[in-house]
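Retry 2 of 3 after timeout on previous attempt. Resubmitting structure tokens to design endpoint.
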């Protein structure tokens, strides 16, 4: 449970649980049914249906299959996607991992546990380089807390451990030019970034100032995928003093489209590598 995860008795709502519950709610609404009808199909109470749709409880495969049948959802791929989301949520609720060594993660714990289960992350960053690509010295310059540095380094295992996380990052030029720490820290960071772009599971693009105005100027975000991009996405955003989640639906799809538009405006991978290398040599 994280510092900002709501609780209700012994139940805890999770991002993936809410993502799955929201899908079930949309399917029920589209089928023109009410909660009592869904409850009858499961031989359960309406309270259980409400908890499922609110993401408060882990969901059983038989219940999901029964509800899909009731709502007329027969596409194996769609049903399979819901079952996979439920499986990942069940595992995340009971998972133990490196994050258990860092009790001060607070409301970042839910993010890192999801990142550990993700198949892909797409990230748009405006002012800082993404955490998965930061060097320890860069992290230390941002926040001189050795435990924070250790957690950031631990997160980066996902880029190397099997199955490797697929990472696609678009970085605004400002993030590359902002002097975090001194020149040697920034030079080391840019050299590390150039090295990481050569990994087969990492794509880095730079959006230069010369690209002009664009729709992504007001907010950075991460899109976390648990299957094919777009199928089971959640979006994570950090704003001053808070963190926001977009748990699927139309708003998540809008972020998918926005990321693609930003990536299309950015330099190609080869051009981006040349740009990063040139900046590192200037320091």
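Retry 2 succeeded. Sequence:
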């Amino acid at each position: 449970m994280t510092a900002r995860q709501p609780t209700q008795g012994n139940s805890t709502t999770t991002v993936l649980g809410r993502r799955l519950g929201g899908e079930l709610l949309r399917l029920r609404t589209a089928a023109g049914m009410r909660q009592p009808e869904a409850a009858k199909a499961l031989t359960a109470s309406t309270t259980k249906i409400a908890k499922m749709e609110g993401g408060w409880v882990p969901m059983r495969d038989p219940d999901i299959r029964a509800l899909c049948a009731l709502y007329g959802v027969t596409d194996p791929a769609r049903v399979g996607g819901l079952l996979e989301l439920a499986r990942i949520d069940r595992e995340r609720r009971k998972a133990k991992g490196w994050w258990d060594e860092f009790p001060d993660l607070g409301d970042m714990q839910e993010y890192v546990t999801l990142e550990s289960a993700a198949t892909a992350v797409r990230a748009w960053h405006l002012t800082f380089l993404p955490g998965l690509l930061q060097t320890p010295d860069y992290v230390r310059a941002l926040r001189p807390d050795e435990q924070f540095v250790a957690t950031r380094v631990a997160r980066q295992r996902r880029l190397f451990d099997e199955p490797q996380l697929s990472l696609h990052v678009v970085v605004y030029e400002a993030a590359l030019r902002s002097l975090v720490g001194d020149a040697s820290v920034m030079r080391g960071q840019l050299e590390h970034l150039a090295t990481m772009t050569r990994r087969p599971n990492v794509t880095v693009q730079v959006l230069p100032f010369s690209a002009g105005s664009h729709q992504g100027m007001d907010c950075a975000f991460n899109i976390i995928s648990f299957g094919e991009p777009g199928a089971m996405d959640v979006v994570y955003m950090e704003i001053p003093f808070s963190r926001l989640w977009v748990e699927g639906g139309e708003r998540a799809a809008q972020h998918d489209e926005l990321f693609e538009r930003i990536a299309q405006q950015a330099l190609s991978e080869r051009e981006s590598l040349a740009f990063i290398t040139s900046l590192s040599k200037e320091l």
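Attempt log closed. The first helix runs from residue 15 to 30.
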